[in-house]
Fold this protein.
Amino acid sequence: MKLLVTGAAGFIGSTFVRTVLDDRPGDEIVVLDKLTYAGRRENLAGLEDRIEFHVGAIEDRAAVRDAMAGCDAVVNFAAESHVDRSIAGEEGFAVTHVIGTTILLEAARELGVDRYLQVSTDEVYGSIEDGTFTEASPLDPSSPYSATKAAGDLLVSAHAHTYGLDAVICRGSNTYGPRQYPEKLIPLCVLNALADDPLPVYGDGRQVRNWLWVEDFARAIDVVLREGARGEVYNVGGPDELENIDVVRGILAACGRDESLIEYVRDRPGHDRRYSLSADKTRALGWEARVRFEEGLERTVAWYRQNEWWWEPIRSGEYREYYERQYGRALAG
Ligand code: NAD
Ligand code: DAU
């Protein structure tokens, strides 16, 4: 199979590329990535000879057609992925998630690709107080990030329905592991703990997230790509639900720091209280999560401890300015 993987220089896309090349060394991978602040070529280090890398945006029709020509399938990871940045300014989110998805879908149809997979998120269902979202739950997004992701998903369904495009959607819960940009809760807190910087906890810290190990999500996407039924949605909920404050305490313990580093800060506007996502339909395709949160967190902390070469340029670059804007204080160092 020759796959076009968009957004593959990011956290989950790069893990997916590694997973596919490990499992099926004969597959060919073409990458299309705009290399935003979150897109890191080094995420694909060691694979340079095994992939064809195109720097370009999914909203750029010519770049898309060039990269997609001759591909059997498309897996779209390309996104602006951080909720707080979407609250600060949503235009880039709309361009990538709505216009970009449209351009990809049109090209997939015109070039006759056999399968299109849209990577999406549990956030399109909104917050749930009790119980668990299934694929039949209504879409009720609350942030500009999730609203534009939901719009992208609806465009995928519309293309499947109207033009008969063979498309599937795969929605994951909060994903964590190596190579995640440190704006997200877990890597942010790991790097702050290692630097003895305060760990910012929004509001009361009692919000609940459903955690999924990144390699488990990558394998699920690959299973849905190959086995999922045309036009269907597949949810991939992680095996563990935790309150944020317990995640933060776990990070402090794994980093050998005490709880005096916890700092409660202003809450995120419109903060979703709880996410909980099913995985039964994806399990029925033969997928299972392999890594539970306790083990995954240990592995994540170990990876960040051992890979300063990866995060040091990030922590001393654009991220410093972002951090000051978002948290009103400078990072240590
Ligand atoms: P990320 O921010 O780490 O990576 C996004 C990648 O997309 C980067 O390489 C970036 O350069 C690229 N990109 C952004 N805009 C682009 C554009 N217009 N054209 C081409 N490339 C572009 O994101 P991630 O955490 O790896 O998320 C990947 C996908 O998974 C997203 O669609 C996201 O909504 C979804 N998702 C993420 C999580 C999570 O917890 N991180 C959970 C569920 C679903
Ligand atoms: O649920 C899937 C989604 O998970 C993905 O679609 C998104 O791309 C991904 O960013 C993630 O969204 P969240 O908003 O849940 O992740 P984040 O890491 O930003 O925050 C996790 C929780 O921690 C959330 O309740 C907000 C809180 N938080 C976050 C940060 C960055 C804090 O308390 N302090 C922080 O500094």
